[in-house]
Amino acid sequence: MIRMSLRQFRIQALVGAFLLVLAAIYLVRLGGDIRAVRDTSQLPSQYGQTMLFLAAGFGLVPALVGAFWGAPLIARELETGTHRLVWNQSVPRRRWLAVKLTVLGLASMAVAGTLSALLTWAAVPVDQVAGDRFSAILFGARGVAPIGYAVFGFTLGAVTGLLVRRTLPAMAMVFLAVIAVQVAVPNLLRPNYMPAERVTVSMSADTINQARALGSITGGPVVKGVEIPDAWVTNTSRLLTPDGRQLSDAAFNECFNNAPKTGATGRFGDTAVCLGKLDLHVDMAYQPNGRFWPFQWIELALHLGISALLAAVGLWRVQRRVS
Amino acid sequence: METPLVLHAERLTKRYGRRTALTDCDLMIPRGHVVGLVGPNGAGKSTLLQLACGLLAPTAGTLSVLGSRPAANAAHLARVGFVAQDTPVYASFSIADHLRMGAWLNPSWDPALAKRRIAEVGLDPAQKAGRLSGGQRAQLALAIAAAKRPELLIFDEPAAALDPLARKGFMRGLVEFVGELGASAVLSSHLLSDVEQVCDYLVVLCDSRIQIAGPVRDLLASHHRIAGDPARMAAAVEVIWAERGRALVRGDAAARDGAAARDAEPVTLEELVLAYMSRAAGAGAVPRASAAVAR
């Protein structure tokens, strides 16, 4: 049954291997280029954008694996009726599915593991200087977590194909679902793997000027992108007054629109000075960078666990009723 | 050690949602026959065969094949060969790939048998299965099912989509395999001519129910065509279907001794099947039964 799985997987495997080789060549060259930079302090400004771009592209790997390796695996058999041929050979249906899931699941892990190892290696000098590999986007493109994503994407694809029974709809559904999960996990799940550390940061004019943005489209006394050294900030409260209440929109807008002219030169100029005088603070939650590897393993285990559940659903379903 | 029964159904029922495909079917088919399963389209033939090879599970009742639950385990799967409707094959696989698949997936695979068969029907092993004609595809599916040397071969409308020549070739192959393997076979068809040629056991399935089942010889011996008014016939004779002053009746001795004895004539298999189908259709079911039986 292993040989049968490999034979059916041949073309997809060749396409995957081809793309993998291309990506590997690029990453090896990137790693070389990065190591050729003499002044390492320049690395974040030179390669920071590339790293974000690569991490975002990396997020497509599990979606592609799910759509092109996972979804057609069973859906195509059901669509073309060949399940009626293969299920009447001397291999029970459950074993048939278990072997297929194992073979292609391992291939997915190998692809994601290789890519992640290369990218992690290439990025080491940049990460050392920037210290931001724990951030929401980069975290998923480093270490062992991507292996979990790929297995999850593949298994979700295979089981969706089994339930939907049609290849193209299953591919589209899986592609979108995996991307949705990739967005949801860093924002909703990952901050809670371990209890967050909390800290209150007073908002002086200087601190405000180090933030990335003030205010939001929907209005409100919001400050965005306040950093804590060596940590991944998972939550920042709105601007709070000394008595712990939220700064009123009116007071915030007053500083935002009609700050007294002082000739301040910071990023937010007079607004920062005006807000700074109000003795404001924010409550922040963060995960220290030391937790990077525990979080990597937790994320891997989580995705492997969900994959195992999905596979169990598939094995139950394939025996119960199909055809 | 071996159960004598190829198929044993007890009150077998299969429903798809609200539609009932099989209702309370009781069936006991002994080994060593080529069984023809006939009935109009939509009668439940395909459902019965897919239940027999484990592609479907019954809603109620039981079905055992060669003495155990269909597709119970690998060993049982090896004992039953199934050729599905429209004979699906892997379009991207060559014929040789299919034979390799058979060898990989079946411990009992007979490579010589498969190769010989492919050569006999003039197929090129290097050819992609997606480019085969319907007849060639059916031959390939037949070779795959037979080369695992099963004790029972099940064919679900194998020849329905084939032209007469391809159908003839397929049927000949089927009979040869059954003989060579010493296997039993069950074959569904709405083409009576196929069944007449190769089957020695008949099951008529109409309107989700088994109408009659038995060895063809016994069925022909126990049914007669009689002229006259069915109402005057002996009580022991069961009228299956009557029209235009003629009736097809069942009841061996009674028919000879009855009032209409002089006129009792033997029936053909076609008349017999049509009579049962007409009766099932007349009983308030699908009135297209006889139209669907094409010769």
TrEMBL record, chain A:
One of its GO terms (molecular function) is ABC-type transporter activity. One of its GO terms (cellular component) is plasma membrane. The chain crosses the membrane at residues 12-31, 51-75, 96-124, 144-164, 171-189, 300-318. The keyword Transmembrane helix applies. Keywords: Membrane, Transmembrane, Transmembrane helix. The keyword Amino-acid biosynthesis does not apply. This is Transmembrane transport protein. The lineage of its organism: Bacteria, Bacillati, Actinomycetota, Actinomycetes, Micromonosporales.
UniProtKB/TrEMBL annotation, chain B:
Residues 7-232 form the ABC transporter domain. Signal peptide: none annotated. InterPro entries: AAA+_ATPase, ABC_transporter-like_ATP-bd, P-loop_NTPase. It comes from the Bacteria. Keywords: ATP-binding, Nucleotide-binding, Transport. PANTHER family: ABC TRANSPORTER, ATP-BINDING PROTEIN. Belongs to the ABC transporter superfamily. This is ABC transporter ATP-binding protein.
